[in-house]
Write a structure and sequence with these properties.
With 746 residues, the chain is α/β, with parallel strands linked by helices. It has 21 helices and 27 strands. The termini are far apart. It comes from Citrus sinensis.
């Protein structure tokens, strides 16, 4: 129940440290005095941990309170916290707007003195409190001990990428590389991603176009009728005449049918009557309009692709922006997450090769109790959880789900809102009135995440929100970031605009000293302007950077960059990239995605690249390398994950030298259509755990050294030729190596 009070104490520490604003000298002593008194009360509250837990349980159950004195003190603390936040917010806002640090307004100083008097009164009341019955405390201690010993989930898959790239790879695997019988794949989402756009990206991609003989996209009507769906499918699939029976026409085709925005479980029954199962890998891809519909779907041969398994980076960055993490470190935030896992609240879905958490979700059995506690502790407000708005009086966090009409609740909301999040599965356009309301009424926002809601143009009003630390917007038309954006939003830690492709960024970008995470569809960064700007020492993640701006000077001014995706014409920028990447001495993850105008004439030569020795994760896509990449990569001393994705290498031979890849754990070889020979020297890849080859239609045999690797426990082989397939089936250590042949049944 004291969570808001403790967060406020941590906030005062940050204010005194100058993390939010440079304090005027006249304000430092009053805030220091206030913080000292709050720390005393905080330490006393720790002695009443179990008393407060019991009080909260009684409040939830609406039982009569055993300790009215404690209830009174906690109410006073909550009111004090709310009033104190308002005073500090007003103070910080006034300094930011005046851009002056010459003094402290008299009314602010008086308010700070008044707060100190109130917290002293609360401290005196606490000295008179008594504990609840010791038997209740012992019972609560026992419950806590049992929760602390809850076995954390150890189930996770071997994939180690983050975000939608991983989801797309998984979806393509299910569509192209699954079982031969007709099967359905459903796309689920409950955190605001665009299912339709996600499905459309797969539907229009080259892999799908080349694999399936014919395709159809069906927008399912709200009311599901068989003849409507049949008419739409025939319109897409029949080449000229509708007289041919659809069923007979499809018997000789491998087909893909996308049914978007499904509301009813009846659609699958209808589809099974219409479409033939010709055992050749045909697929039906379904996006669900409502997440709860999945519980009603029972596909005999169905697969689900969940978009709502949360990559840990997002929540951890939100925790930091909210001020939950004392040192603003993602490493500390991940330790907190591990504690939640160990106590059974959160379940790990995937871990990276190094063991760190990749994706996770809240356990379903924990949802009801967490929501009740959240509302009763006045930690967050959401219309879907509290339609009457009874819990929003002092709440600083607002999140809406699915409906823009939820923004109407903001009309009656207090202006001291700190976080506003909107989760939707649709790419609806944000009403300009709602946008103006947000920027004009809630100038104290720290977190603003509007999910997939589309803004038609750059919103200049965003510059009112100068205290923002986390910003996520969807502005597909945005092509440049203006000077004013960086002049006013200097407090940003995370800037996330994944649907914007930026051709021009103002020089003032280099003023963003607090920036840690930069995510765009692609972005061009300006050359360093020199004189008035230094390096961006906190920036640790960039995606996706145009290769033309990857100069030695620019990359050298990002000394702590750990994750980088470069996307564009790598071939044209061969000379620049090959010599500049070595400046990133802390780089751990590098993704190179080529978008050359003539990819088949690739001039990318890995032998000329000087990669940072700190790399642990490396992936290539569409690079069309002509020369064997292994000799250039096997010497990287810390490399754990190597992914040669679609069209990355077009040669016929791979050679791994002796003792090469000393720490490699995961190797993906994908779309190497012409690979015929793979050799490994003695002692190569001694720690390899996971190997995926897809396809290996011409590969005649696996390297003998591969079977000497004791750590290998997951080997997925797609479309092996008959001779190799038979050898793998008869291999005596097949189970130990985790050999799986795909598609099933070959």
């Amino acid at each position: 129940m004291d969570i808001n009070f403790r967060l406020f104490s941590e906030r005062l520490r940050r204010v005194l440290a100058g993390e939010e604003v440079a304090l005027p000298d006249a304000a430092k002593q009053p805030i220091q005095n206030l913080h000292a008194e709050i720390e005393v009360v905080t330490s006393w509250l720790r002695d009443f941990e179990y008393d407060m837990s019991w009080l909260l349980l009684q409040k939830i159950a609406e039982d009569e309170n055993d300790n009215p004195d404690l209830r009174t003190v906690m109410d006073e603390i909550n009111c004090f916290t709310y009033e104190s936040e308002k005073v500090i917010d007003t103070f910080i806002s006034s300094i930011t707007q005046q851009k002056s640090q010459s003094g402290c307004r008299e009314d602010i100083c008086d308010a700070l003195q008044g707060l100190q008097s109130k917290i002293i009164d609360i401290k005196q009341r606490m000295q008179q409190l008594e504990h609840i019955d010791s038997r209740i405390i012992n019972e609560l201690k026992s419950i806590k001990a049992q929760a602390g010993n809850f076995p954390a989930s150890l189930s996770f898959k071997n994939r180690d990428t983050v975000g939608l790239d991983d989801r797309m790879e998984e979806l393509l695997d299910l569509l192209i590389e699954g079982p031969p019988q007709l099967s359905a794949v459903t796309i689920l989402d409950s955190i605001g991603l665009d299912k339709t756009a996600f499905a459309a990206e797969a539907y229009s991609g080259n892999y799908v176009k080349h694999y399936f003989d014919c395709h159809a996209w069906v927008q399912e009507p709200y009311t599901c009728y068989a003849d409507q769906i049949l008419d739409i499918i025939i319109k897409f699939l029949m080449p000229s005449s509708r007289l041919i029976i659809l069923h007979e026409y499809l018997m000789t085709k491998r087909y893909l049918i996308v049914i978007d925005d499904v509301w009813s479980i009846e659609v699958w029954d209808i589809i099974r009557e219409i479409l033939p199962d010709n055992q050749n890998g045909s697929r039906v891809l379904i996006t669900l309009a409502k997440i709860d519909t999945v519980t009603l779907f029972q596909f005999e041969n169905g697969q689900n692709i969940r978009l709502d398994l949360v990559p840990t980076g997002g929540p951890l960055r939100l925790w930091i922006a909210e001020g939950f993490i004392p040192d603003n470190s993602e490493a500390t935030a991940e330790k907190y997450l591990e504690q939640l896992i160990n106590r059974g609240f959160v379940e790990v879905k995937k871990r990276r090769a190094g063991g760190t958490i990749n994706t996770c979700s809240i356990r379903s059995r924990c949802w009801p109790s967490l929501l009740v506690v959240t509302l009763n502790a006045e930690f967050v407000f959401s219309p879907i959880l509290d339609p009457k708005g009874e819990s929003r009086k002092n709440v600083k966090r607002f999140f809406a789900l699915e409906q823009q009409s939820d923004f109407a609740y903001l009309d009656d909301y207090y202006p001291h809102l700190h976080s506003l999040l909107y989760f939707t599965s649709e790419s609806d356009h944000l009403d300009h009135i709602d946008w103006q309301k947000i920027c004009e009424m809630y100038k104290l926002l720290r977190v603003l995440d509007l999910g997939s809601l589309v803004l038609n143009q750059y919103p200049s009003e965003i510059e009112n929100l100068s205290l923002l630390r986390y910003l996520k917007l969807n502005i597909p038309s945005l092509k440049s970031l203006p000077l004013s954006f960086f002049n006013y939003l200097l407090n940003l830690y995370t800037l996330d605009m994944p649907f914007s492709y930026i051709d021009h960024t103002a020089d003032e970008f280099w003023k963003m000293k607090k920036l840690r995470h930069l995510n765009f569809g692609s972005i061009t960064l300006p050359a360093h302007p020199g004189n008035y700007c230094g390096s961006l020492e906190n920036l640790n993640f960039i995606s996706a950077l145009y290769p033309c701006c990857c100069t030695k000077d620019l990359l050298g001014r990002l000394p702590n960059l750990r994750n980088l995706r470069i996307q564009g014409d790598l071939s044209y920028n061969q000379s620049l990239l090959s010599k500049s990447l070595c400046r990133l001495s802390c780089l751990e993850s590098l993704k190179l995605a080529n978008e050359s105008k003539m990819p088949r004439l690739s001039k990318i030569i890995l032998a000329e690249y000087v990669f940072p020795h700190s790399l642990t994760h490396l992936s290539f896509s569409n690079t069309d390398l002509m020369d064997d990449p292994m000799p250039a990569l096997e010497k990287l001393p810390l490399l754990q994950v190597l992914k040669l994705k679609q069209n990355s290498y077009s040669g016929r031979k791979l050679t791994c030298g002796s003792d090469g890849f000393p720490r490699l754990k995961v190797l993906h070889l994908k779309s190497m259509l012409w690979l015929e020979e793979w050799t490994m020297g003695t002692g190569a890849m001694p720690k390899l755990e996971c190997l995926i080859i897809n396809p290996c239609a011409y590969l005649k045999k696996m390297p003998e050294q591969l079977w000497c690797i004791k750590s290998l426990n997951n080997f997925n082989c797609w479309w092996p030729q008959p001779e190799l397939r038979q050898k793998l089936r008869e291999f005596e250590d097949k189970e130990q190596c985790g050999i799986q042949l795909y598609p099933y049944g070959i």
